[in-house]
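Hey L., structure's done. Input below.
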Amino acid sequence: MARFRGKDARIEAATGLYRRFLFSEPVTVPTLEDAAMAAIVDGVVDRVAPGTSLGVSLPAPDPDPNAPRIALLTEAIDLLDPVLARRVRSPGPSALSLAARCLYALYRETGDTAALRRAVGLGERAAAVAAPKSGPDPADPYPDIAHELSIALLDLAAHEEGTDALSRAVHHAVRAFRAPSASDRLKTACQSLLSRAFTALFQRTGEDEHREQALRMAVLGREFTEETVTAEDAYNLGSPFLAAHEATGSVRDLETAVVSLREAVDRDPRPDHLLALARALRLMYPVNGDERVLRESVTMSRRALAAARPTEPGRHRYLEQAAYARLLSHAAHGGRGVVDVAVPLQRLAIGSLPEGHPGRLDAIGTLADIWLARYEKTRSTPDLDGAVEATLTAMRLGRGRPDHHRHRARYGRGARLIYEDTGDVAHLDRGIHATLKALETDDLPAELKAAYLVQGAAMLLDRTERVPDAEMRQAARNMLFECSKLDHGDLQVRIECARRWADLAVSEESWHEAGLAYLGALSTMPRLTAAEVSRQSQESALRRFSGMASLGAACSLNVGKAMAALTLLELGRSVLLTQEIALYDEVRALRTSAPDLARELAEELRTRDESAAALGARMILATAGLPGDGRLADRHRVAGRNLQILRAQIREVPGHERFLSGLTEEDFLSVSERGPIVVLNLSALRTDALVVRPDGVTVVPLPAVTPERVGALVDTFLTAAEDPDDHGGTAMLDALAWLWDHLAEPVLAVAAPPPGPGPLPRLWWCPTGPLSHLPLHAAGHHLADDGRTVLDRVVSSYTPTITALSRVRARRTTPSARAGLLAVAVGRTASGTEVPLPGAHSEAAAVAAIHPATTVLADGEATRARLLAELPRHPRAHFTCHTRSDPRSPSLSRLVLHEADDELTVGDIARLDLSSVELAYLSTCDAARPGAEIPDESVHIAGAFLIAGYPDVVGTLWPMPDATGRRLARHFHRRLAEGDDPARALHRTTIRARRNAPGLPVGWANLVHIGG
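Output:
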């Protein structure tokens, strides 16, 4: 090293070296992924036995390609050391801050925590020397010194227990922000840093005040930047929401985090942004079960690993996330290779953490989880040894710590797994003991207590299978009961506990207890499907817990409680449709009583719907090319919060006190005044029809109608619809006859005895589950000509729920003075990918001939924008076009228009405000058929038109021939023009079509009337 005379010369030379370091490009090869995979492939990890060390150090590159850059820093530090050591003439803030920067850069390059601690010490000395000036001064060094010190303290906090470093980081960042000389750029950086610091404080303490501060800083930081939103803004907004989800299980917070972090990655795919998004997606997968989310989490994990350098100080986080993503992929798809890589990745993560690092214990626990998963796959002794070693090490290191319960519970899980493999009850007993000890922890967080209760109940039940023990079995039931009542954010766990409790009660034929358990679960569902979460997450929750309402109703019927069964069915079916009808109908009702509230509610619903539609896309699709302005998650979250506020305000308006509340028992009965409502409940326990009339509910048992038989019938109808010739017709006729004998005839004997002279009575069918796919209105022996058909006894309509029927009727007014009808005919798409509908134009022309004031939009005229504008102007609408169904997410099902990228989705239709409409006729494929995975939810094209405001909707259950659809439409509209209401017009149309072709029900049993 050259000899320097004087302090200034040393500082000047060190400054030059630091600048050379800043302007030199780091060598990014090999990446952290390269180094980790090389260590795994070369056997570096496997050569270290778990008993010797759980962690394995990542081999350092030899030679280090970045050694010349690091040498610049060490030389600069060596130059500054004599200056820093002087006591007579103490170093000034410039020398102290320069040394702190060099040391911090050395830490970032090498991960050397000694350099980091020294950088913090020098930074604090510099901040003390360079007190902020009393007025603005561009030359004032204090704001930058304090800001840089805060950054170093935030990094130091990751290596220390407690909150001291974080509190100091907040203190100095606030002082830097408030300094009179702080620029807008620096203020933005300080608020970004404060958001990160408060997020870390929330993670350490669990105090909501810190999370709120983190969000406040993330939002306020945008005031000082000209950009709409930066990558750092999005990252700072997503991080506290991700932390909140990890603490509470809130789906809304997790969705906000995913969308915000996706925005951060889109704008700047930095390693830390990729890592955070990968973690958020990993947590999202168990919530919505979407395979695309899981695949993207794995992809983001790999991208983060490939973007990071082997010397990255936080490399353990990248390695652990990559290991976790592979573990989750293994759990979803199996495959030993995936989990084989996860174990060494996690061992490398542990090896990257020095002894005493606060994250080391959790990393060892994660290794135990991964190794247990691999043992579950391989059942090999080495994997069992590794899993046991990791579990016991975590328990030993965690002894005396507040979170020791986590490691006890993990040991319990491992012991149960070993019991399943060996059959040795001693292992199970040890697992039960460890889990019960974990449950004895004082002030145990509710979400963890719930998980431990489920685990303990499962192990107690395992024990009773070996040695029957009534007390132990009752203890398991008590655990599940307690879990279902815990008040915590993870609603899915609460519902799952209630379901398991109910299943256990059912197994012992404790019907009353099972009914209470199902009621508790279903009462929680509205919160899980609340308006502020995305539609995909709503439907995922409903898919996961599908069938609970039917089982709960069956349990209630087993103890003779018909009204309780009806209440359960109303709670658990068509949850989304009923909620949406209530919200949009309230807008219409408030226009006269509280117009200002009506406008506010309509605006918030519009914001919620538009942001929710985009939110769903940003949640599950690949990021490349997707639009986003960085505020999407914010808008959706705020709209959801505002809707909650509006609900309370609306309930204070006279006449609106029961807004979004369910019907009472008296309400259920009063809805049946126009005709009986037949609520059908299908379950593995029993099947019944609940005939609702003004004087009460009558239960009609249907013992022959089983889930297996109904499934076969659904297959029969769908197959026959694809083969509409004599063979298909015969199969469908046989199925309709079976439905009459075993379902319709017993029901009508109670609900609608053979009629006398005069019009046929009305009846509403309210089916559940797979029964929703069947043409109950067409059941009968149609070739016998002896009146044994539903068509000859009643005029049928359908309703998703009694609540929905009540709301639809409440909106019905006198017929509109406008006679206009909108006819939409898309016979051919521009892309040619859809089968042409040559009769679409002639069908529209036939309808127009019957209704003179008809507007016809054909092919290219039928654009999404034109339809959204025309629908509110016409009280009646008739559609002839193709549809596309999305079985995983029915709200994305859509009407296919002329242009390839121009479609009208269920969500588009539902967001319309149609206050004066009367009828929608949907001559489209499957318009009234619910999604196969959540058949209890009437989320289909016809249901969307109900939400939008149409009191009467006619739709199809399966595709039908072009000519048949045209003929049925013409007869229906003639009846309508002659004065029939829609239900009777459709009934007479069906009767006529049957008379013309009684042996081909595919042509006349397809159309259904929903509503009024």
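The longest strand covers residues 688-693. The CA atoms of residues 323 and 342 lie 4 Å apart.

-- N.
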